[in-house]
Amino acid sequence: MKPYSLIKISEKDGIGLVTISRPDAMNALNSEFFREFKDYLSNLSSDVKAMIITGEGKAFVAGADIAEMVEMNPDQALKFSRTGQEVFMMLQQLEIPVIAAVNGYALGGGCELAMACDIRLAGNKAKFGQPEVSLGLIPGYGGTQRMPRLVGLGNALYYLMTGDYMNAEEALRIGLVQKVVETEDLLNEARTLAEKIISRGPLAVEKVKRVARDGLELNLLAGSELEKNEFASLFGNEGTEGMRAFLEKRKPEWNK
Question: Which pLDDT tens digit goes with each residue over 60-71?
Fold first, then answer.
């Protein structure tokens, strides 16, 4: 496996664990991080059936690297934003499930990274927020677009316009995260969830992720059309095996 300087990779039992490792800067996202993470995503092993992303130390990711950003001109800032958006879109569009295990501060780019994942689990001491307006900025990695889709426009605008932080329980209440656990149990909880998902029909998991995400951009009629076609496509292969296994009271034998 290729060595990286800002991310640590562990792949075991079909689960890829990505640990952002820049604890001296609270895992702030810089150009080197995006280069490394894009490289990892671009060369992801087919053996990886689910991914968990977390941070080293007391932060998940405390934001983008302000020290790198402060001297940027508009053209450089545009490139920096474009790079972050492209990498986070690559992450979102992976066929496999991606779980954010938010161990601490997930602010700015860190909150945007978590929102690009499929499911977010939070340690009980985690903090979330998009504080860019306090710097005279707005989010640049998709935060203005993903947050309203996840928590509703009113909730999103409250946090986007105030720059306030929210704790893990508030994030759970508004639907930004799906579960809060003790921080020391976070990775075990994320791994247990990943194992559960990859025990299901792999084609079904892949399709349900794509249909649900694509359906957000469609009207109900078009989304339902997409759903019925993908539903039907699972008959005669994985779906038939799953139904037969259920009737025969055995575990299904997935091909993928």
Answer: 999 999 999 999
Shared domain for 235 and 212, answered yes or no, is: yes
Structure tokens that stand for 112 in this block:
């945007």
Characterize 193-227 residue by residue with b for buried, 16 or more Cβ atoms within 10 angstroms of its Cβ, and e for exposed: bbeebbeebbbbbbbbbebeeebeeeeeeebeebb
Task: Decide: helix, strand or coil at residue 189.
Answer: helix
Q: Which of the residues are catalytic?
A: 112, 132
Cα–Cα distance for residue pair 128/122, rounded to 1 Å: 10
Q: Is residue 254 part of a domain?
A: no
| CATH code at position 181 | 3.90.226.10
**pLDDT tens readout for residues 216-250:** 999 999 999 999 999 999 999 999 999 999 999 99
Q: Could you tell me the pTM of the whole model?
A: 0.96
Position 3 scores a pLDDT of 83
